[in-house]
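Exam review. A common question shows you a sequence with its C-alpha cells and asks you to describe the fold in words. Practice with the pair below. Do the first one on your own.
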Amino acid sequence: MSLLLGALAGIATPQLARPIHRAGAAKVVADAHNLTLATRAFMAAGGTLPASSDWGMAPTGLSAFLEETMTFQFRDVEYRFVTQPDIGVAQLWVGYAAESGVGEALQSYRRPGEVTWTPTRTTFVLVK
C-alpha cells in the first residue's frame, strides 16, 4: 500500500510544481508592473529616475511609492532595480538559478521590446 502511495506521489508532485512555478512567475510580472507604476509616480514627483539598487534591495527613495509588502526576493528569485538616467531607462532584473522553475515559467512570458531573458535572468524594461 505504501509503495503504491509513494508511486502516486512521485507522479503527482511534478504536476503540482508547474502551477506553483507559474504562480511565482505571475507574482514577478505583477511586481514588475507595480515597479513601473512606482517609478512613473517617482518621476512625476521629482522629475528624475530613482537610483539603481543592489540585488535583493529596494531602491532608495522609491519605497514611498511601493506597497509595504513589496519584497525584492522570494523563493529562489531575487530582483535588482537598474536605471540608466542618461538615456531615461529603468529596468527590473530578475535573477534565478538555471534550474529555477519560476525562471523557466518566466521564459514563456514574452513582450517584445519590454522583456528579455537568459537562462539565469529575465529583464523587464519598466520605463524608456
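Now try the second one, then compare your answer with the model answer below.
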Amino acid sequence: MGYMLARLQVRSGRVPALIEIMSHMTPVLEREGWKLVGAYQTTIGRFNEIWDLWDIGGDASNITKVLGVARNDPEFAQWAAKLPEVVEQEETRYMEKLDYGV
C-alpha cells in the first residue's frame, strides 16, 4: 500500500479558493479508491503552503490510473481547470509505509 504526499505552494490570498476547489475534487478521488489521510497548512515556515497526504490504495501505478479516470469526470475536470489560478507550484512524492511506523 502506498501514499502520495502533495505539497502545494498556493498564490497569496488564494488558500480559501484552493479549499473550495479541493472540496469538489476530493470526493471524486475518494470514489476511485483514494483516501485523504489529512490536509495541512504550514503555520510556521513558508506561507501559503498546503500538504495533502493521500492513501492511494495501491502502488505508484494507481496514481496515474485514478487521475486518468478522474479527469474524465465532468465535475473534477471543471474544478481541476481552476488549479493554475491558485497553485503556484505543486510537488508530489510517492511513499511506502515502513514496518516501524504506526
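Model answer, second protein: Residues 15-31 form the longest helix (17 residues). Helices lie at 15-31, 61-70, 74-80, 83-86. Full marks require stating both points clearly.
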